[in-house]
Recover the amino acids of this structure.
């Protein structure tokens, strides 16, 4: 199964349990992201930390995290 992901620049991504991260964007917006829906660092980003996060999690109405849909990558799950 392929998972569509967006590159999201974050101020912090902190583990809050065995199954979840708390993500904080630079504008102060926050979201709880399942660890299974994060796919590592985007190593092309230089000036801040960016992570690959599943698009369907970011597109949920209760996800208030600021992000851009410009940079997309597909990962095997």
């Amino acid at each position: 199964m392929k998972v569509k992901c967006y590159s999201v620049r974050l101020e912090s991504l902190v583990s809050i349990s065995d199954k979840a991260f708390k993500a904080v964007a630079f504008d102060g917006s926050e979201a709880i992201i399942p660890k299974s829906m994060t796919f590592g660092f985007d190593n092309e980003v230089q000036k801040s930390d960016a992570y690959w996060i599943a698009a369907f999690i970011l597109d949920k109405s209760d996800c208030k995290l600021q992000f851009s849909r410009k940079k997309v990558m597909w990962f095997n799950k």
Q: What stands out?
A: The CA atoms of residues 9 and 50 lie 4 Å apart. The domain at 2-76 is CATH 2.30.30 (SH3 type barrels.). Helices lie at 55-58. The first helix runs from residue 55 to 58.
